[in-house]
Structure formats: structure tokens, C-alpha cells
Amino acid sequence: MNNVLVLVRHGESEWNKLNLFTGWRDPDLTEKGIDEARQAGELLKKDGYAFDIAFTSALTRAQHTLSLILDELGQRTIPVVENQALNERDYGDLAGLNKDDARAKWGEEQVHIWRRSYDIPPPGGESLKDTAARVLPYYEAEILPQVKAGRNVIVAAHGNSLRALIMKLDGLSTEEILKLNLATGEPYVYRLNPDGSAASKKTLTA
Prior knowledge:
CATH architecture: 3-Layer(aba) Sandwich
Distance between the termini: 28 Å
Radius of gyration: 16 Å
Number of strands: 6
CATH class: Alpha Beta
CATH superfamily: Phosphoglycerate mutase-like
Strand order of the largest sheet: 3-2-4-1-5-6
Order of helices and strands: EHHEHEHHHEHHEE
Oligomer: single chain
Number of domains: 1
């Protein structure tokens, strides 16, 4: 099979810039984020990638990133599927708070546990395990079949929804995935085997 699956975290958002927990809140990209998305498109174009279908979340920053990438590729007419299954992890009561203020309120250790443990959610929110529980079934039902059918697929989503997916593709343990940080606007290019496992992976950087 060896068709292409590309994963891209959205470009820098207004709340990334302000150091706020974002989750399901819906800020747009900064100027830097717009540039990052365009650069991702340029990198993909330079390497000769083209796509048959695209997936993204229900959040503006991911959708905007995808549209900028497709503009660079000259591919705005391909089908685009939006679904909240690909949304960022829900940070619950932390959403909208400055990360430093959250540490002052709950303590650095507690906030670190919420951010970096696999299965301990913040109050009213999701853990990475919870995020994976919605991302992976959607991937298996909707995205992977497209790749298996011979199509090249791009997914523009979020740090934690993509970490959940990369954990599966790379065969990472719950400890290993916690150490993985995804840069904004950086494409990860997978080629998949017939069984859906990763045959190869590379990161495109400027």
C-alpha cells in the first residue's frame, strides 16, 4: 500500500502566544501561525506531495492551517472532512487560564500531573487517554480506510489529538508518549503498510 498519511499540528494560535490553556476554546492563528501553516504547505509541495482527501477538527486554528496548506499546494478543491473527534484535548477548568496562573492556583506539581500524566484529567476535562478514546476509533473508521483505499490523506489537528494517533502509529508506551512534543506547523509524513502499521516516518523541516 505505502500511501501517504500526513499529520500536521496547527500553526501558533493566539492563545499559544499568550501561554493560555486552550483545549476546545476556539482562537485563530497568529501571524506567525499563518506563516507556519504556509511553510508547511511549501515543504509538502517542494517534496512533491499531493492529497486526495483532508481531515481536520471542528476548531478554527486547525481548519485555518489546513486551508493555508491546501492553498500552497493548489488543492483547495479536494474533499475536507471536519469532525470534533479530532479536537484538541479538553482542558476543562484550565481552559482560558494562563499556565503560570494555573500553577499559582493549584501548584506546579499538580498542574504538571494534569498536563503530563496519561490518564489523570484536569477538573472537568480530558486526559490523554480520554482523548485517544475518541481519536483512535474515528481514525480506524474514517481515516485509515481512505489510506487503505489508495488515497493520500492529510490530517490537520492538535498537539494532543495527534499525539494519541502517533502513539498508535509509532507503537509508543504510555510513558514514551508523554515525552513527545509536536512543533506547530511541522508535517509528519507516514507511509503505511497494508495492515495499517507505519512502514516509514519522516518530519519535514525548513
